[in-house]
């Protein structure tokens, strides 16, 4: 990477794998959104569950009855709140897994992984639950030592890889 082609966006603490993965995933979504329509079905389900949980919390908090008489209402609201929270956690853990992007026509999805204390970002393109492309990228390719993210380089790599993977899919 020469200084003339390197455009730095903002610093990231490169020792914080959660922050690094979030930065890479957000850039990936933005890049793919520009070319492929994205499915927001799971996002809609998760937001709906969060809204329902907040609704039950509001009812429990602002019920007009004084405490001893409102125990049944509070118990029901707390139970429903935890049920919504549990469903949200189940959707995130068992349905969404490590999927970052799903095409609206469900033709492909992109999954990523960055394990704790690791420097390799695992990028997978999945078609019909079958991995058609998988590659590990060192985060050093896209971050400087000071933690500045090279967004343009990452976007170019994502576009190249997804185009290549979807080309394999058609063969």
UniProtKB/TrEMBL annotation:
The way it spans or sits in the membrane comes to: Multi-pass membrane protein
Which domain of life does the protein's organism represent?
Eukaryota
**Which InterPro entries is this protein grouped with?**
Spc2/SPCS2 (IPR009582)
Which Pfam families has this protein been placed in?
SPC25
Q: Does the keyword Membrane apply?
A: yes
Per UniProt, what is one GO molecular function of this protein? Answer: peptidase activity
Residue ranges crossing the lipid bilayer per the database entry: 47-64, 70-88
Localization, per the record, is: Endoplasmic reticulum membrane
The answer to whether keyword Zinc-finger applies is no
- GO terms classed as biological process: protein targeting to ER; signal peptide processing
Keywords (alphabetical) are: Endoplasmic reticulum, Membrane, Transmembrane, Transmembrane helix
A single GO CC term for this protein reads:
signal peptidase complex
Regarding protein family, the annotation reads: Belongs to the SPCS2 family.
Per its database record, what is this protein's job? Component of the signal peptidase complex (SPC) which catalyzes the cleavage of N-terminal signal sequences from nascent proteins as they are translocated into the lumen of the endoplasmic reticulum. Enhances the enzymatic activity of SPC and facilitates the interactions between different components of the translocation site.
Q: What's the protein here called?
A: Signal peptidase complex subunit 2
State the species of origin. Answer: Triparma verrucosa
High-level lineage: Eukaryota, Sar, Stramenopiles, Ochrophyta, Bolidophyceae
């Amino acid at each position: 990477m020469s200084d003339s082609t390197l455009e730095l966006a903002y610093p990231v603490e490169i020792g914080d794998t959660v922050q690094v993965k979030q930065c890479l995933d957000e850039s990936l979504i933005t890049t793919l959104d520009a070319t492929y329509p994205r499915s927001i079905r799971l996002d809609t389900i998760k937001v709906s569950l969060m809204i329902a949980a907040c609704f039950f919390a509001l009812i429990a908090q602002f019920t007009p009855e004084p405490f001893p008489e409102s125990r049944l209402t509070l118990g029901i609201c707390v139970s429903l709140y935890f049920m919504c929270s549990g469903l949200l956690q189940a959707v995130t853990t068992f349905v969404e897994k490590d999927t970052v992007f799903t095409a609206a026509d469900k033709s492909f999805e992109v999954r990523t992984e960055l394990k704790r204390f690791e420097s390799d970002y695992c990028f997978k393109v999945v078609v019909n639950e079958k991995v058609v492309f998988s590659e590990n990228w060192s985060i050093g390719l896209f971050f400087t030592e000071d933690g500045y993210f090279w967004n343009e380089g990452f976007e170019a790599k994502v576009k190249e890889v997804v185009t290549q993977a979807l080309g394999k899919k058609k063969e």
